[in-house]
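User: Hello! My lab partner asked me to get a predicted holo structure for this protein. The small molecule is zinc ion, SMILES included with the sequence. Please write out the structure tokens.
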Amino acid sequence: MATKDTKLTNCPKCGSPLSPVEETPSGKKLQRCSTGSWNPETRQVEGCDYVKWFSPEPEELDESCPKCGAPLVMMTTRAGKKMKKCSKGGWDREARKPTGCDFVEWFNGTKEDLEEKCPTCGEHLVLVTTANGKKMKKCSTSGWDREKKQATGCTYIEWLNSGATSPSNGTKFNGDENFPEYEQ
Ligand SMILES: [Zn+2]
Ligand SMILES: [Zn+2]
Ligand SMILES: [Zn+2]
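Assistant: Hello! Below are the structure tokens for the protein in complex with zinc ion.
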């Protein structure tokens, strides 16, 4: 399923050279046409909109699939989420459903209680490592309302990675999709 990254040097759409490989905030690699550029303000591609995504390299794990016994691989989705999946599994883009063995286990990051108290409300803090490897301290009373897509409880968050001030969900590109966005 991982498409071989053949060395493309010219845009298949307009024939212009491709730009150097870029990395999105969530760590995905892509190469776009040199005549096109992403405008973060309008959230649109200006010029040629050809984008070549690099499939993340699956990392083989020393674990076997509980369903079929094939080796498991660690994959990272476009949104930077990690999952273990069966190496026999694939994704049918047209039907938008898994093919082959459908074993998937999401890696949801880790959470650790801290002795520190929240400067906002005095409850204890937790150290959270997100699925894409970012670390933050947040208040143990905070939560996430998936339906309203907003934070609940105390909103105190301190990101530990330098420069990162907000959770990065990756820039939403409208390119093709290698992986379904499973609900965690
Ligand atoms: Zn082009
Ligand atoms: Zn399997
Ligand atoms: Zn708090």
